[in-house]
Structure formats: structure tokens, C-alpha cells
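WARN retry 2 of 3 for item q-0093 after timeout on previous attempt; input resubmitted unchanged.
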Amino acid sequence: MMRLNKYIASTGLCSRRKADELIESGQISVNGKVVKELGFHVSARDKVTINGQLIKQKKNEYYKFYKPSGYITTCDDEKGRRTIFDILPDEFRHLKPVGRLDKDSTGLLILTNDGDLINELTHPSAKVQKVYHVTVKGKVTEQDIIKLEKGFEIEKDKMAYAKCSILEYQQKATFLNVILYQGLNRQIRKMFDILGHEVISLKRVQHATITIDGLKRGEYKPLKQSQIRELRTYLKRVSNND
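OK item q-0093 returned
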């Protein structure tokens, strides 16, 4: 037996939290009867429908992908721009990227149909680390680093902060390691822009415990069971620290 919200999440439709909302709103039926009880349990023999549409459990899939520049992180784009699914196999279209990288950014994306995992990795309350290698114009100073770590407003009522370390001073540029625990839109670019340093390149190299190691641009690999276990252990630890 399995809780109804977990069953719904296992279909890849949504997270358990969203499933609870669907249950409470009367959109879920089990064997033809509407169920609004959040603690309701179902078995593999039960028929679960959402607004009359039968849903079934799916095997969870997990991949890491090295996004190249020039592609947006979505399945379809109404403006006709190239998306990551233009270079991924057609059978990947049921998977969802965990978070986003803007068109000009490169690096690691986790792809999965596990709604619960997506929610755990991206929910605003989750302090999940994301690591980036960033090159910006000009010489970043120690005062800049202090400002980035202390945090400042990048939009009205939106405070942003980042843990940064300088890896190398290049000709008229600075190469940095940047760690985020937030998920604000174009956060790194906006923060450095406010400090007067235009971002030249931005690559995500790690998300939680998953790294880009072993991938070339445009490549993907399934995550190993050991990597998934390590990721879940990390997420449990982060959750317990909140």
C-alpha cells in the first residue's frame, strides 16, 4: 500500500505537495470515487484518475546533462528558440530539468521524472548548493566578495547573496567559484552587473551532490544508484538542518 499523494507523484505528474492540493480540490478519484482524504492509501490494483483521466506509476529516471550555450531550458518555446530538447533524444521529452540555466549559460542540468525530487531540489525553502565557475570582466576585489556574501537587493524586495572565491586573475577579467543556495532568476549575472562586472561566461559544475564530471558539452549520462542514494542522503541532511 502507498499513500495517495506519493502514488500521484510517482506518475511524474507533480510533487506530493501539489498532489495534496489536487486531492483536497476533489480532482482525484480512486476506483471511480472522489477521494479528499490526504492520508488515503492505494494499492497497485487500484485505478487512480485525475479529472477522469487514468494515471499510472512510472519508473523514475535520473540523468545528468551538460547544457551547451545557445539553448533555453524548457521543452517547448513559443518564440521558436532552440531548447535543450532539440539536442536530446525524443524519448527524453517526458523528463523535466531541475531548475534552469539561461540561454547563454552552460553546465550541469539534472533531468528526471521524479516530481518529489524536483520539489526537494528547487523549493525556495531548500538550501541546496549549486556551484558555478564564472568569468567576469574587470578585477573583482575582496570588498566585492564581502558584498556578495553579505547580500544585497537585486530587484525590489529580492535580496541575493553568494559565497565566492577568486580562482584566478586573468587579463582584464576574474575567474571565480560561486556557490548559491537560492534560485533567483539570473541571480549571478544581476549581482555582478550591480557591482560593475559583466559576466563573460557562466557554467554550473555541481548541483547538490551531482557534478558535471565525465561529461562533454551536449552529453548526458544516467545517474548511478549510488549517486541517487548519496543525493537523497544529502537532501535529508539539508532538510533536517532547516
